[in-house]
């Protein structure tokens, strides 16, 4: 019942490509050099492609993802989500710690003196609406899959992916409009770290859902065997 995974190089290459990617970002920020960043992006994409290929082969064509294995994968996903909650809790903690009792160095006010905050009723409100709409469409996709309604599943998943891309574009435009940067004290660092990592999660999630769409078009998912979609959603 259990699937003993064959030795795989992809966790190692994934970790190394992530190191190259983050190091490349640092090189780009400080020295305007894109070489290491491009190497990290290419190695990351190659790892993603080959790792997905192996997982699809094991789960869809070789039948290794039995109900017992799927239960283990679900437990792993739950633990990952818990770790994500604490990850973002740290950023919110930093924000509230600084904003609820501003120090004299910040001017005794929040936002700090010299910082012009974004209007929360402008692009941020639109982005929130887009996220809520994507939650509705991905739920529609899941229900359609459970009811074996292939066309509705593809339509709903396509809408979700479009909304994810739209959200990313809106956040990029929002970043270009800000009058402050990540180096502008605690306000800039907490704002860009929290929203930046959230945007990164949206990009990764959109990529995963795009793979799920391609798999659905190829008839990989059934009403009882679709954990890959559930994890991505």
TrEMBL record:
Role summary: Component of the cytochrome c oxidase, the last enzyme in the mitochondrial electron transport chain which drives oxidative phosphorylation. The respiratory chain contains 3 multisubunit complexes succinate dehydrogenase (complex II, CII), ubiquinol-cytochrome c oxidoreductase (cytochrome b-c1 complex, complex III, CIII) and cytochrome c oxidase (complex IV, CIV), that cooperate to transfer electrons derived from NADH and succinate to molecular oxygen, creating an electrochemical gradient over the inner membrane that drives transmembrane transport and the ATP synthase.
GO molecular function terms attached to this record: cytochrome-c oxidase activity
Signal peptide region: none
Catalyzed reactions: 4 Fe(II)-[cytochrome c] + O2 + 8 H(+)(in) = 4 Fe(III)-[cytochrome c] + 2 H2O + 4 H(+)(out)
Keywords: Membrane, Mitochondrion, Mitochondrion inner membrane, Translocase, Transmembrane, Transmembrane helix
Species of origin: Heteromys desmarestianus
Subcellular location: Mitochondrion inner membrane
Protein name as catalogued: Cytochrome c oxidase subunit 3
Recorded superkingdom: Eukaryota
Membrane topology: Multi-pass membrane protein
GO cellular component: mitochondrial inner membrane; respiratory chain complex IV
Regions crossing the membrane: 35-52, 73-96, 123-141, 153-171, 191-214
Coiled-coil ranges from the UniProt annotation: none
Gene name per UniProt: COIII
Pfam annotation, one family: COX3
Cited PROSITE patterns: COX3
Family matches, as InterPro entries: Cyt_c/ubiquinol_Oxase_su3, Cyt_c_oxase_su3_dom, Cyt_c_oxidase-like_su3, Cyt_c_oxidase_su3-like_sf, Cyt_c_oxidase_su3_a-hlx
UniProt similarity note: Belongs to the cytochrome c oxidase subunit 3 family.
Any Gene Ontology biological process: mitochondrial electron transport, cytochrome c to oxygen
Domain (Heme-copper oxidase subunit III family profile) ranges: 1-233
């Amino acid at each position: 019942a259990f699937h003993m995974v064959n030795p795989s190089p992809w966790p190692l290459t994934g970790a190394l490509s992530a190191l190259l990617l983050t190091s490349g970002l640092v090189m780009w920020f400080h020295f305007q050099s894109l070489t290491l960043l491009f190497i990290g992006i290419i190695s990351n994409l190659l790892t993603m492609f080959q790792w997905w290929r192996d997982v699809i082969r094991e789960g869809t064509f070789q039948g290794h993802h039995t109900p017992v294995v799927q239960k283990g994968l679900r437990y792993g996903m739950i633990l990952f989500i818990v770790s994500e909650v604490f990850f973002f809790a740290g950023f919110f903690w930093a924000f509230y710690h600084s904003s609820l009792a501003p120090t004299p160095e910040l001017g005794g006010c929040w936002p700090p003196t010299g910082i012009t905050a974004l209007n929360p009723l402008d692009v941020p409100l639109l982005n929130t609406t887009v996220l809520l709409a994507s939650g509705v469409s991905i739920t529609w996709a899941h229900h359609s899959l459970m009811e074996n309604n292939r066309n509705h599943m593809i339509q709903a998943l396509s809408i979700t992916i479009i909304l994810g891309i739209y959200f990313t574009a809106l956040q990029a435009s929002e970043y270009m409009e800000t009058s402050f940067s990540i180096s502008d004290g605690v306000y800039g660092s907490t704002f860009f770290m929290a929203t930046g990592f959230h945007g990164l999660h949206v990009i990764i999630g959109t990529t995963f859902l795009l793979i799920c769409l391609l798999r659905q078009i190829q008839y990989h998912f059934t009403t009882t065997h679709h954990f890959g979609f559930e994890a991505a959603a």
